[in-house]
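re: the backbone from monday

yeah here it is again, tokenized this time
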């Protein structure tokens, strides 16, 4: 699981709250992390692999939204691999891990492994949070026709730059001036926790606002495309809204336990003695949410693929061939050019006005199809309702 407690545990003089959760059934906890991360890893890869019987439609170019969704899944896969590796070492070499608690020890490898593995997990999941924020921004810009594949470069710079900067800054402040003197006070820990949870809280607060505004903009686009709001278009808008709701639901389910656990542990840190009897219920709640984090954090990768694409099935097609991205569903320009050639006997002014209207409709259809990627029924309805499909 991804928690700033992983980094604070690398301090030999760690606080009592961190000691409480990290020493609670470590074998069981590591086993839970390995099992959850392994299941999520296998199912996520299964979801992303091409399936037999699929006939993906062609599209001239990939969208930035589809690229972002794939990058989110890649971050989750790499984060799960980090959890599996870290928990496996903890289970397989308990003596090696025990050397982390030795103050002024001569063996630096246990501490190096502790810090390196914790940073790997934090960095990948933080990058996933930033990519999810970029997806919300990109969805809004797409319907406003202000985004495209060129913006993906800016998203890369923002996501990886901020993820690396916040991770390095938080770790540097936590371990300053050395690993043996970290966690001597909250002035070391608080900046580290802020840099860890800042992107998580950003997604939790800002993404619903952006998704809501995107849904409103989609409704306006659908109404303005032909001047009417049919049942198919209303259903398409509802499916896009449901897609955003599923994304936020998965995020809340997987990470709300982290916020609850951290709140409880900070409260325990403020107490003179966390082992007092009046604090028993709080200690129990902290330990329960700690185990829940080990289950839900790694499962984010698989649950996100369900929210993005739905269940894609078990039948994997392992034959190598060049395939179009399956969630790219619209090819209005290809249909317009090959299936419905423009008549040559129209007057020029009528032809130009039709061409402009068709171009605007294509842009609207492509923008909406990017938001409903992976939803075949939505794409089919969108294609049938487009003026080009009707032979306009």
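seq for it, each position gets an aa:
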């Amino acid at each position: 699981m991804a928690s700033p407690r992983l980094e604070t545990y690398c301090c030999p003089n760690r606080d009592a709250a961190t000691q409480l959760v990290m020493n609670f059934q470590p074998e069981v906890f590591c086993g839970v992390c390995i099992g959850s991360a392994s299941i999520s890893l296998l199912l996520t890869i299964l979801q992303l692999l091409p399936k037999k019987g699929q006939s993906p439609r062609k599209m001239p170019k990939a969208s930035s939204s589809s690229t972002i969704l794939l990058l989110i899944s890649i971050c989750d896969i790499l984060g799960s691999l980090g959890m599996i590796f870290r928990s496996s070492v903890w289970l397989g070499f308990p003596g090696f891990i025990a050397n982390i608690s030795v103050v002024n020890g001569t063996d630096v490898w246990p501490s190096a492994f502790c810090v390196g593995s914790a940073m790997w997990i934090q960095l990948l999941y933080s990058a996933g949070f930033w990519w999810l924020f970029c997806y919300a921004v990109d969805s809004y810009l797409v319907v406003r026709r202000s985004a495209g594949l060129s913006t993906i470069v800016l998203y890369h710079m923002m996501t990886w730059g901020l993820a690396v900067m916040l991770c390095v800054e938080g770790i540097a402040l936590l371990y300053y001036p050395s690993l043996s003197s970290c966690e001597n006070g909250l002035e070391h820990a608080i900046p580290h926790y802020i840099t860890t949870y800042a992107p998580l809280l950003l997604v939790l607060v800002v993404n619903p606002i952006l998704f809501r505004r995107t849904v409103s903009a989609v409704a306006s686009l659908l109404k303005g495309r032909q001047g009417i709001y049919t049942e198919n278009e209303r259903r398409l808008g509802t499916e896009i809204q449901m897609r955003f709701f599923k994304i936020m639901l998965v995020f809340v389910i997987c990470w709300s336990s982290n916020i609850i656990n951290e709140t409880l542990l900070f409260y325990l840190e403020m107490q003179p003695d966390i082992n007092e009897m009046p604090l028993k219920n709080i200690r129990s709640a902290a330990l329960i949410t700690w185990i829940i984090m080990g289950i839900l954090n790694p499962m984010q990768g698989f649950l996100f693929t369900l929210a993005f694409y739905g269940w894609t099935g078990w039948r994997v097609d392992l034959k190598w061939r060049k395939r179009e991205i399956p969630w790219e569903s619209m090819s209005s320009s290809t249909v317009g050019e090959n299936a419905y050639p423009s008549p040559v006997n129209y007057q020029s002014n009528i032809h130009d006005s039709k061409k402009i209207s068709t171009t605007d409709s294509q842009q609207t259809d492509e923008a909406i199809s990017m938001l409903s990627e992976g939803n075949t029924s939505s794409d089919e309805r969108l294609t049938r309702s487009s003026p080009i499909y009707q032979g306009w």
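Residues 186-226 form the longest helix (41 residues). The domain at 4-52+62-309 is CATH 1.20.1070.10 (Rhopdopsin 7-helix transmembrane proteins).
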